[in-house]
Amino acid sequence: MSSERPNAPLPGEVRVDLPKGVTARLDRDRLIVHGPHGEVQRTLPVGALRVTVEGPTVRIALRVSSERKRARSLVNTWERHVANMVQGVTHGFEARMKVVAAHFPMKVAVKDRSVVIENFLGEKYPRTASILPGVEAKVDGEFVVLSGPDIEQVGQSAANIERTTKIRDYDPRVFQDGIYIVDKARPRAAEGA
């Protein structure tokens, strides 16, 4: 009789336990995690990893056993990706950006799936930054708050806005106008906490 636990992960394998109310499924090369705050999908490197969903557990293992550091880091990276997916569908992620308008008063608004910046450095035409699907944006005084279940979508939307207000042809030490990320995409606090 074996002394090992029946559900213990094998060497080179990690497992992520899903909390109550969160489900995961595989669709070819995509892992789909669904929870109270939405759904997050991620394409898996199926040539390198073997991912299985067994009830409330997602198991990630290498296709070929290896003790190499790069192989272990790939498994650990995907363990973190799945943990972020679970965090996103249970609580969500939030990024905060600050609007800095030192020289010209800037008007920032959310319209459709984009953020519109008017009068940036006195320009006649507005600049627009796209917001990726699944991300909600709102302007709260001098802050722009982005939230959503996918950490990569929230972070990329924040980067799109910051890049849209990048200053060219002016001395950045003097003209510090723009919209800057002050809090990167972080898990939202649990409701009632």
Structural commentary:
The chain folds into 2 domains: 78 residues, Outer Surface Protein A, domain 3; 95 residues, Ribosomal protein L6 (Outer Surface Protein A, domain 3, Alpha-Beta Complex). 19% of the residues lie in helices and 40% in strands. The radius of gyration is 21 Å and the shape is elongated. The N and C termini lie far apart (46 Å). 24% of the residues are buried.
Radius of gyration from the alpha-carbon trace, in angstroms = 21 Å
* Tally of contiguous helical segments: 2
Q: Give me the CATH architecture of the largest domain, please.
A: Alpha-Beta Complex
Query: How many domain units?
Result: 2
With strands numbered from the N-terminus, the spatial order across the biggest sheet is 11-12-7-13
What's the multimeric state? single chain
Q: Which residue ranges are poorly predicted, with pLDDT under 50 across at least 5 consecutive positions?
A: none
Kindly state the percentage of residues in helix: 10-25%
CATH class of the largest domain: Alpha Beta
How many beta-strand segments? 13
Write the H/E string, N to C.
Answer: EEEEEEHEEEEEEHE
End-to-end span in angstroms? 46 Å
CATH topology of the largest domain: Outer Surface Protein A, domain 3
Beta-strand percent range: 35-45%
Average per-residue pLDDT, rounded, comes to 86
Q: What is the 3D shape?
A: elongated
Which structural class fits the helix and strand makeup?
Answer: alpha+beta
Main sheet record: 4 strands, antiparallel
